[in-house]
Amino acid sequence: MSADSPKAADSSQIAASGRRMATGTIQVFLAEALLLPTGLLTAAFLTRQLGPAGYGLLTLATTIISWIGWSITSAFTRTTIKFIGEAEDWQAIASTVLQLHLLLGIAAAAVMGMLAQPIADRLGEPGMANYLRLFALEIPIFCMAYAHRSVLVGLGKFSQRAIATASRWIARMVLIIALVSVGLSLWGAILGSIASALVELIVCRIYVHPPLINPSPFPMRKLWGYAVPLFLLAISLRLYDKLDLFMLKLLGGTAAEAGFYATAQNLSLMPSLFTLAFVPLLLATLTRTLSAGNLTKAQHLSRDAMRLVLLLLPFAALGSGSASEIITLLFSSTFLPAAPVFSL
């Protein structure tokens, strides 16, 4: 009886952790999945308001700014979750993480402001420079909001993380549609995106508010020791992820062709949304499990996670077979050239 009790307790803990991670994954996935309906509604509105060329310019500017923001945050996301998940005094770690993200975000925004014109000229769209300068204001805001997300995940506050993300996507749709509708065109779309990132940051600060200015006893160099290899990897992966759109423009593609290509990309977001929701939660759960010395439970969670990915395959087949109909329904027949790309 006494020998069976520890095994029963371990099984119960495995089941409880699995249920908690599954619930958190569903909550975060549903919040991230709001990008799909809100993003599609926003894209359907913008494609009709801006046309292929205008939508292509907006997509290029968005891609450049998001690449910078994601490169910065991807380097520290897993490191932050690891340290927060293992620490008793998480406030000091969170404060250092936020200060580092703020510094890097401001520096990146300043560099983008200086390089906006050369980048726009190289892409064959000199008029895009001012859009990039305005959009650069989103970088530090996004970095701060994402750092708060990582802190929430590290603390196991999956529901709060989901609420913050959901707030951003809903605000983004409402603000972009409202600002473009009053005649601000591309400027309105950019301002709406910046404001939605600020909304997410405010919501995150409601749930966790470590100090941003006070010195932290947790040294930044400790974060860098883990994050530098991940930073280089993140930049490489993000560049590779967006290389197709950049190469389309660098090889002579028009802004309209970039708009068609971006439309196809927008419709293929579901797998990446699932990954974005699932991986940080899995990492946080595994970190706490391994810290508690329960290797068996961690192995069970890892095996179940790999099986879950296979469930996405049928949805990919359905989308590929009905590409033309989906494009016409959502974006009008003007964007039908995007259908073959989406089907692939």
Automatic annotation (TrEMBL):
Cite the entry's keywords alphabetically: Cell membrane, Membrane, Transmembrane, Transmembrane helix
The compartments listed are: Cell membrane
Q: Which Pfam families match?
A: Polysacc_synt
Question: How does the entry describe its membrane topology?
Answer: Multi-pass membrane protein
Q: Organism's domain of life?
A: Bacteria
InterPro entries in alphabetical order? Poly_Biosynth_Transport (IPR050833), Polysacc_synth (IPR002797)
Answer whether the UniProt record assigns the keyword Transmembrane helix to this protein: yes
GO CC list: plasma membrane
**Regions crossing the membrane:** 28-47, 53-76, 97-119, 131-152, 173-203, 223-240, 245-263, 269-287, 308-331
Protein name, as recorded: Teichoic acid transporter
